[in-house]
Amino acid sequence: MTRYLEVFFLLFSHIYLFIGSLYKSAYNFLYSVYKFFEPVYIFFVHVYHFFVHVYYFLVDVFYSWYFLFIAKDYPLLLLFSILVTFIPLLGSVALFTLAERKVIATVQRRRGPNVVGTWGLLQPFADGLKLVIKETTVPNRAMTSLFLIAPSISFVLSVFGWCIIPLHANFESKPLVFADLNLGLLWLFAVSSLGAYGVLLGGWASNSKYALLGALRSAAQMISYEVSLGLTVISVILCTGSLNLIEIVEKQKDVWYVIPLMPLMVIFLVSILAETNRAPFDLPEAEAELVAGFNVEYSGIVFALFFLAEYSSMLLMGILLVILFFGGWLLPSILFFLPNSLGFFVKAVFFFFMYIFVRSNFPRLRYDQLMNICWKVFLPITLSYIVFVSSILITFDGLPVNQQGLPYFGTFNL
């Protein structure tokens, strides 16, 4: 018995010494890595603070110029606000189209755009210039007025959705938003629903069978998947008690809604792909069946408006997904040293990349498969999840309440 105890003691001591030496080696290695990267970290911290100071300087200059020359003139203020929303949106769409072509080229083992500008960075602007100077042709039997108005409707409605999207600048500042509406989420869904009218008018006014079939497909698809989008958002509203996007983000300080609502996040992601007519749900533009869908008769600047409307809606829905399920600009506490704007940007870029990844890897579905997914799969799951979330909140007294202790939903007291 004593012999066994001695062997056990020796074995335990060797294991203890081994773990101690391993811990010491790991500690020395990590400390050496820290010392090696410490100057790099300090350099980037100084660079970050430099850009923060530049940012605050530009903000001070902007507000000084704003109050001196613009705030007293309402029409000029309105024009300035529109430009502030419109110009960054165009730049984002241009960069997204370039990133999409680059990523798809990499997947297909091609080079992609690399001629116009350094690494092809000016290719989107060259494409935009080409569409602007190109002739706008109108079919002989088309309804000219509606034919030209339809692209403008789609584009203007897609821009309206951006007015309520909150963005974050740095650690302490309040979110930057053009219009902070209490019913912002309802406004966003109302505007995106009206976008179907631009597609319908464009297909019908073209007086072409291919365009009309593409428009009907697109309208049916958008209306169907708006049902699943709306039912998905209801569960988020139940957890938040508000339709204001800033309040929805602030309610996720403790936990992002993607954790308790993971199935709904997946449904929302698939639904926004179908809502924006993206692959593998790009059936309204199926070139093998409908030539090019509802915009087959369009060219020049009017085609560019449809193109911009589609891509701006894609970016808008990607950012909405980040706001509803991934905490918007909020970051985990372990990443406290990073600016909030960087976290928001990284999350949004990840889902923009998901758009491209899905397009380059998945084949197009049939139309009956598309509708079956919406009405036979997503609809029962979202309805069941609403009942489930409501039951959990009522059981554990988790419903949002107002000062009187009654259930509270934004501006509506029940």
Account of the 3D structure:
The chain is an all-alpha fold and 414 residues long. It has helices at 2-70, 74-107, 123-133, 144-160, 184-205, 209-240, 245-250, 262-275, 287-290, 300-325, 340-361, 367-395; strands at 408-409, 412-413. It has a two-stranded antiparallel sheet. A hairpin with a 2-residue loop joins strand 1 (408-409) and strand 2 (412-413). The longest helix has 69 residues, at 2-70. It is globular, with a radius of gyration of 27 Å. The protein starts with a helix and ends with a strand.
Write a concise keyword list for the protein shown above.
globular, 414 residues, disordered C terminus, 12 helices
